[in-house]
Design goal:
By secondary structure, the chain is an all-alpha fold. The protein has 13 helices and four strands.
Length: about 500
């Protein structure tokens, strides 16, 4: 599939005709294509407006003073209120006292026209440059020259008698040379040479320029056609005029400015990096200083001194960078704005507060003699504390042994009293059985080894009392209850004597 041809100019998107200027293109579009589909027209008008607003927003601050062709700028192509001579007649009419006039509306069309001219000129040069360094460019000198004439229309030699840059006339020794980008004629001394590597960087944003030279080069004194296409090292290049060089270098400068960071941002990032490192080292240094001041041998004095030196250097860098930020642009001819100056002062104040909080309160390190004395005092304190702790531990062990011996003696006494109580014979009450021959049955009671023998005996008698009540033997109930009371009184008297 053949590669689509890249055309330059103000092309109508409907009929692809070149109208020459943006105003003619707009007039042609409204006159010739007003009957087209309304949706398509609205979409194209919106596209035109969006593109124009974007170009204005990007190029307003980057337009060179006077534009690419300041001598050719015409106010008549901008505003219908301006006459052919470039002067608005209404500005010279007499005014009443106190009347004011805003020049903003008059200034905006002139500025927009210059911006449009600059953008159109830059895009035209980039399109031509992309064609001249493409893969289809012939390598032969004659064929390449014919190809360059097809891409850019060269000015006829007989129509130009002086160099358009220096104004000197052409002679047998001062030959005519054509710019490959605009077709203008200049002399050999005014010729500029654009290497293919730098041209690729201008036309392709993704191209990485890692070679030298990184811009326009100077040619030798030779006037041969071969040197017009090749450097002495054999690298291909293009001959251009000074004006085309300035336009392309301005374009490259604008791209680099958008990619690179401002100086104040670079200084602030370095200062912030130093602050972060200082905040990272400060806790370690404070811990080292406190440890050495108390006489401990956890850290070495050399390590703490090295860390202190790093902190002092970081603080010095913060102070120097903040001062440079505060003075940035104040000595230039064009002073920075009020907001920029306020921002620079705020950064300086922030750095000063940081230094006051951290640097002024930085603990000093002891000398080697002071450190030796502090370590001796600390060692004596540690030995004294160890001796006190050892004495306290021995006293605690002594008290613990006494408590254990007392507990053992108490256990032995308790065990002996319990054994004596178990061996003691429990008096058994005499059961008085009436003459009628009633006799209680054996009570199903499972004694517990931990229960006292008297308690077991009382539980058995309670079982007998229940059996007598069930059999309605009231005399036996009365007799058994008396026996139970006697046992309870005996049990209470024994417990009281033991306590």
């Amino acid at each position: 599939m053949a590669e689509a041809e890249i055309r330059e100019g103000f092309l109508c998107p409907m009929c692809m005709k070149d109208m020459g200027t943006v105003f003619q293109l707009q007039q042609h579009f409204e006159d010739a294509h007003s009957n087209e589909d309304k949706d398509v027209l609205d979409q194209l008008k919106g596209l035109f407006g969006k593109a124009k607003r974007k170009l204005l927003s990007i190029k307003k601050e980057d337009t060179p003073q006077g534009g690419p062709y300041p001598e050719q700028a015409s106010v008549a192509s901008v505003s219908v209120t301006v006459d052919v001579g470039g002067i608005d007649p209404t500005l010279w009419e007499p005014q009443e006292i106190g009347a004011i006039r805003s020049h903003t509306d008059f200034f905006k069309p002139i500025r927009d026209a210059r911006i449009d001219r600059y953008v159109v000129e830059t895009n035209k040069l980039l399109i031509r440059l992309d064609k001249l360094i493409g893969p289809n460019v012939p390598t032969d000198a004659g064929r390449r020259k014919n190809y360059e004439k097809k891409v850019v229309l060269w000015a006829p030699d007989q129509h130009v008698n002086i160099c358009m840059t220096c104004g000197k006339g052409f002679t047998l020794t001062r030959r005519r040379h054509h710019c490959r980008l605009c077709g203008g004629i200049m002399c050999n001394k005014c010729s500029q040479f654009l290497p293919f590597t730098y041209a690729k960087k201008l036309t392709s944003p993704a191209f990485n320029l890692n070679q030298e030279p990184s811009g326009f080069i100077k040619r030798s004194s030779s006037n041969s056609s071969l040197n017009s296409m090749m450097t002495p090292e054999g690298d291909p290049h293009l001959r251009t005029c000074l004006h085309c060089r300035q336009v392309l270098e301005k374009r490259d400068q604008q791209v680099e400015q958008r990619k690179s960071k401002p100086v104040i941002v670079q200084f602030y990032e370095k200062m912030k990096f130093c602050m972060d490192e200082a905040e990272q080292f400060l806790p370690s240094y404070i811990q080292m200083a406190e440890s050495l001041s108390s006489g401990e041998a956890t850290y070495s004095l050399q390590e703490a001194q090295t860390l202190r030196t790093k902190l002092v250097r970081l603080f010095e860098s913060i102070d120097v960078l903040s001062k440079r930020i505060a003075q940035l642009g104040l000595n230039d001819e064009e002073l920075p704005g009020a907001k920029a100056v306020q921002l620079q002062k705020s950064i300086r104040v922030q750095a000063s507060n940081f230094l006051q909080e951290n640097m002024l309160g930085l603990s000093k390190l002891p000398t080697e003699e002071q450190l030796q004395r502090l370590q001796d005092v600390h060692r004596a304190k540690v030995q004294k504390r160890i001796a006190l702790e050892r004495h306290a531990a021995m006293e605690a062990q002594k008290i613990e042994r006494q408590q254990q011996e007392e507990f053992k003696r108490h256990e032995e006494r308790t065990h002996q009293s319990r054994e004596a109580l178990l061996q003691r014979e429990v008096p058994k009450p005499a059961l008085r059985v009436p003459n009628k021959g009633w006799k209680p049955t054996e009570v199903n009671f499972q004694p517990n080894d931990a229960d006292d023998p008297m308690v077991q005996q009382m539980n058995i008698i309670r079982g007998y009392v229940k059996q007598a009540r069930d059999a309605q033997r009231w005399d036996e109930v009365k007799m058994l209850e008396e026996n139970l009371k006697e046992l309870q009184r005996e049990y209470w008297s024994q417990n009281k004597s033991q306590n």
